[in-house]
Design brief:
With about 425 residues, this protein is an alpha/beta fold. The protein contains 14 helices and 19 strands. It starts with 5 loop residues before the first strand and ends with a strand.
Amino acid sequence: MSSVPLKILAVDDDPVDQELLRRYLEEVNGYHSELVCLHGREANFEETAAQPADVIFLDYLLGKENGLDKLRSLRGHGVKTPIVMLTGQGDEGLVVELMRAGATDYLAKARLSPDTLERVLRSALKVGELEKQAAIAEENLRLAAKVFENVLEGVLVTDANACVLSINPAFVNITGYTAEDIIGKNPNTMRSKFHNADFFREMWHQLSESGQWRGEIWNKRKNGDVFLAWQTISAVRNDEGKVTHYVSVLFDITERKRHEELVRYQAYHDILTGLPNRQLFHDRLTQMLLNARREGEMLGVMFLDLDRFKQVNDTLGHEAGDRLLCVVAKRLKTCIRKGDTVARLGGDEFVLLLPRIKQLRNLTALAEKILESMRVPAQIGEHELKLSTSIGISVYPSDGDKPDVLIKRADEAMYLAKQGGRNNYQMSSSH
């Protein structure tokens, strides 16, 4: 039995019929009902009848008015409530006309009884519940369509054979492909050359195993530009578990990725020269020491300081000094091997990491090469500047086995080179 009373609206001109309906409703098992009777000719009928109700009983004859017109008016005003038409007799032609106009059911007054009323009421309530569910489903579909149309992510839907069925406006904005370009085709139209066959085999393997794949993927726009996307592909299955569709959601992360890479680059590189900074040099030196220890090899560290660099800043300004530092950075990079590292620690201090050293003379030969490269004057604007540098060298394992120790020993050796007249190199005191 329902604990919440049903609200039933009766639209009838005959008070006797209204009272009979009220009495019969009280005898219907399983329901509590609240009957609201409304005179058929009352003003604002549609507005009043549109009030929340579970079932409306509408008399076909309302004085001189036609209940059929009222029925059409109610449905025309968007009233979704189940409407049971009360008729004097069950004329088949009339019943068909009533049902076409939107009646949920009909009930002949001559056969009105608690049993027939219960049957019709149950049927009308069931229809009403189905219509509510249909309305909810329709609203959900409408909202889903709105979301599909307005989300910022690109959405692509395919059938089970990966044939494109639909795309949303964001997909067009991101990729440049319109519905005419891609519907009915395979999404591999967007495939770039950045991924090999193994990448896509693994993608489909995950889709098959878990029903979803997500990750970064390089796609190609209609104009040929390649962009990086974060993409999710989900399999849609029916009640039997069979895949019926695939839904792919993607958004362009190219600019975000570039920004992240720029931030990461700036965190580990000197902004002026583009060389690795102190942090990156220290990380690489730590790793190379582990490799040298494992392989039983020597490793060299060179500490360089430009001679009389302060005079350049004081006489020509810091802009000229910065340009000179960039010249020095380029020259140092031309002197080292692949796998070596040159970094700027700050100011006019540079440091070199030299792994896999076979003999000490390899380090002294490189120092002489650097000194020779610095002897060429640097053209900074209208000024031709003479260069020289002082170099200190430390060696693993004889000078230490920790990054900070090796850098310190090379720094100390560089000061010995300064004291020795500049424009020369010195090995650490242990050599």
